[in-house]
Design goal:
The chain is α+β, with helices and mostly antiparallel strands and 484 residues long. Helix content is 45%, strand content 10%. The longest helix has 31 residues.
Amino acid sequence: MTGHNNKTSLALLLIIAVTVVCSSVLRRHGGNFDRITRRTIVGCSSFMSLSVADAFAPSPTFPSRSFRLEGIMMVSACKMHNSMGTSYPHKTHHVVLSSSTTGNDVGHHTADTEKEPTPVNNSNPSTLNNNHLMDGFDSVVNKRYACTRFQRYQEPTHNTENGTEESAATNANAVPQAAISDQSVVKSAYKCLELSQRAPTGFNAQPYRVILVHSKEDKERLSQYCLGRNADRVRDSDCTAVFLADRECGRDGKRYTNFLVDNMDPPPRQNEHGTSDDTRPLFNSMTRSASTTIAKANTSRTRRPLSSKALLKLRMLIMLFSSGYPLPRFLNVPFSWGVRTAVSILSFFARCLQSMKQRFRILSKLFPSDIQMLPTLSSAETWAQKNTMLAAMIYMLACTSRGLATCPMEGIDAAGVRKVLVIPRRYSIPLIVSTGTPYRRSVNEISETDDVGMSHGDDGNFSPRYSLQEVVFGNNFGVTCDLT
């Protein structure tokens, strides 16, 4: 033990001597050496010190000297890279620290992989952000499926004749009751409905309403008018969104006008010279430097001021396209049919005139400008429902992104649903969407299916779809879309 201490003391003295000599050299010629030379001297001095220590050290319990040398050179290369901004090829050594007490196992080299210089990534941050958005959206779309069975959150209890409480599920003769809803799921669904308002609609009229049924009693009443197993899904899920399509959105003309006016920018101020003096700061979505009022105003597509004539024109266009005229229902239906028929006849003659104009030059001289084509109008219910379905799809995707399962259903008795939920006659019910936590199946339990025996992908597999070539065509109907 005494001899080992003497060797250790001698090694320490040699290390101190080498360090002092190198320090004096650097101090004397510090202004003449460049950065790489100085680091090389430091590296060599460290290596000499470690070599002397290894010569007098006992049996190795740390990595070998050659491994230390490579480690020192690695550190020097990394320092050069950090200081000079240059990337050098280097070796990466994977070290496994074994629990064995033998020195040969400690610091054992498992692999030597040559690593090429990594080029600096100068990608546009907006491009990277778009890639993340694309990947996230693709994942949400692929994970959405029609949940055929929901997990009941909590079983309801009722009082028996003796005054004791027992679960309704234990009573075989009891009428099926709705489960108590998980309020956290209901709040998430409500947030998803807020996101669904971002769905596009014609003229931003937003001709839909939504009823979120989440109480136990209302779920039971709603399930009475759902067909087949749809009733079970309404009772078992935490909430059900009932989407309503407004067939008479023309009645909301004043509300729509006020909505546009509230989201307009104030008119620009006039200076003393009679010109516009609009010094309002523009809202920048990246810096968010403007005030809250201006930011809110600039998020609307109708932020520029509209005249009363333009607002009236918008209201007339909405009534024309939606066929939702502010008339009594017994007058609205025949009047809407008459307008659509008249527009169809005019559209037919316009197409014929346009075709004849292309064939006869004399008509081109009589009608130098193009013939204005007329739109194909839909019924009030069709127009309202196709706008409502866009919001319903956004809602289901938003629920999927939050880990909630959804099941869109149209197997309902609309008249009964209208009665129990007190829905006015002006609204149709295109679909309802039950929302909740999917049922947790056991290992040996087969996948849940719907009323016709189809599975909808709750086991991780996608439900089948037609091939893309059968659905998507290129340029003309029935022509394969060849993008090569």
